[in-house]
Specification:
about 160 residues; mainly alpha; Cytochrome Bc1 Complex, Chain D, domain 2
């Protein structure tokens, strides 16, 4: 009789827990949907690495990882590509291109994240946190930069007042 009671409790537990697990929000799936829908990435896309035009392919998984890193580390100040501490400078492609030096390719954006400078490049900036290698590896920071640049290229409203997130 005791075995039957334990078995019934076990089955009831599974019947209660299984739907909760299956119906739980899936953040990775949501990020992947954003990447495929708004960034229009299903196959690897070439992203500009440097001003000389060298490129590297970034997959939907790479950009999804970059989006996750952006959400964890940048979203407080950069909702939808805006820049809350200085709303005149967003993460739009035009703003990234207009910086000194320009921040519109993977290597230049990574360099900025490693050592943030003011928009005109004249001095160190304290608005954006410095991202050392000990915090974010080179592949991670490149995925983050690729996400920001692809969002600036493709995401509706990225870096404007009427963003979609």
């Amino acid at each position: 009789m005791l075995r039957r009671g334990i078995f019934v409790c076990f089955l009831l537990g599974i019947l209660i827990i299984l739907p909760l697990v299956l119906l739980a929000p899936q953040p990775v799936l949501a990020a992947t949907n954003y990447v495929t829908r708004y960034l229009q990435v299903t196959e690897p896309v070439p992203m500009e690495l440097d001003a000389e035009g060298h490129t590297r392919l970034f997959s939907a998984q790479d950009l999804t990882a970059g989006k996750r890193l952006f959400q964890q580390n940048c979203l407080n100040c950069h909702v939808g590509g805006a820049t809350l501490p200085d709303p005149t400078i967003s993460l739009s492609l035009a703003s990234l291109q207009g910086a000194t030096p320009p921040r519109n390719n993977i290597n230049s954006l990574v360099a900025y994240l490693r050592q943030p400078m003011t928009y005109d490049g004249s001095e160190e900036s304290f608005w954006c946190r410095q991202v050392p290698e000990s915090w974010m590896s080179q592949p991670e920071i490149e995925d983050l930069a690729a996400f920001v640049l692809r969002a600036a290229q493709k995401a509706p409203g990225w870096g404007t007042d009427d963003f979609e997130s």
